[in-house]
Predict the structure of Hydrogenase maturation factor HypB.
Amino acid sequence: MCGHCGCSSEKARLSEPGSEAHSHLHQDGDSLQLQQALLAGNDELARQNRDWLTANRITCINLMGTPGAGKTQLLEATVKGAGADWPPMAVLEGDQQTQNDARRIQACGGRAVQINTGTGCHLDAQMIQAGLERLAPQPNSLVLVENVGNLVCPALFDLGEQHRVAMMAVTDGEDKPDKYPHLFAGCELVIINKIDLQPYLNVDLEKIKASLRRLNLRVEILTLSASTGEGLNAWRDWLLNRAHHD
């Protein structure tokens, strides 16, 4: 178990390509109990966050994905493209170090609070609770959370959000959903970014989509380019639909 986040090796196994032999790794009882206690404590704080967000009619989106997928660039484009019909919007930025991403959002005219996790590899419900207190979003608003760039541990931790979105880029390759199924299977929307680069890569978008649908038959998939603007209207429509109905 990771000493910081509680991610588990309970279901891990060792195997050699070309051989049917494999072995499993098992946790001791104390380690498993610690992990369960950690996640249970987080779940209670997440419930408190969700109750508070719901009471104030605030829609919260948890955006997770690979490092370099373009999450911050997408949020920049979202802030810049917000029209008069949009609800008030604010951003919680998660990174191990620096305030770079929060500064980028502020430079676009958005409100942002940076959460630095130190050695931690993900955001958790307690961090979000503190971030919301600092951000103080107004009722009937939209809060976008950019989680730490990681395809493993963020999937384990409920933040209290109403919606989970996963983001990858065509430059990540075709096998990301198959390698990291837990995160992609648990999201209602998957964004495939940087499609402007597809002509220069040996990447089959349909193969990626098929992998995603094997994991989650109901998943919505958007392809876009946060840098050129291609496909951004579909993302804005998706976001506004959730904000107006939550």
Q: What stands out?
A: The chain is about 35% helix and 20% strand. The two ends are 36 Å apart (CA to CA).
